[in-house]
Amino acid sequence: MAKKLFNTKIGLALGGGAAKGIAHVGVLKALEDNNVDIRYIAGTSVGAIVAALYAFNVDVDTIGGLAKRLTMSKVTSFKLSKTGFFSTESLRDLIVEYLGEVNIEEANIPLSIVATDIKTGEEIILTQGSVPDAVCASAAIPGIYIPVQIGVRTLVDGGLVQNVPIEALQAMGAGVTIASHLNSVSHYSEISHVLDVMRNAFEIAVSQHTHDQIKEADLLISMDLSDFSLRDNTERYNELFDIGYRAATIQLTKLAWYKKTNVLLYVGRLIRELAPFKRPEFIKRLENKQTQGQ
Fold first, then answer.
1. CA angle at residue 159 from 181 to 252, to 5 degrees?
2. For residue range 186-196, what is the model confidence (pLDDT) as tens digits?
3. 130 part of the active site
4. pTM higher than the cut 0.85
């Protein structure tokens, strides 16, 4: 219990959001510029792509180069089947181009990738096995992409169960969790294509449970990206990068405060979880200050 109580190892969760994932690159740059030591990393959908690259020590500029290639046309292959309209083969080729045929357990930073078992509805946290396959599974939006078979599991987009994978970080051992959330508003991108309609419908479906899950984050980097496309933002790369960078920089001032009061906050959590009696007022004030800051 004491080990968990005083655990200050930082984990980073990168959420889903299709082509808006460019903003994650700005977040990573801000974390590096502020010397934040990421000890664990987890990702869902486009967050899984960025997390996988960063976990294998791919530098932020190179990740940015890949992010510019994350358009619907470049990472999908038309392959009509009974279970989807597109395959993730092009995305897999892109991951292999940057990382090779690597396994999750070989990552320099412990990595988790979240997917959903479409047969059982279970959340599947992938911590071993092929990175390209895991990334493709995590990004396979049901109804659009053909599900990815990994072992006996038929997997689709992890956003169905955990769009911002904070639980995965906690399971790995993170004591302080940072979440980069790309869909923080209750309105969605403009539609100009049937795929926009389907993608917006997917985001609406997952928004409520995502709202509940991100409450578990110690530091929430939340962005309003409703003005950006889900399919292609290559012409607006700098805008998205800057939004991610600014949002993270603002929130990181709160992380410094969090570190200074880390023990008290964990004591507050311990009391809340284990004791039936009223919490001390000073603990309440610390927790309220943290919540208001987010």
1. 20
2. 555 566 666 66
3. no
4. no
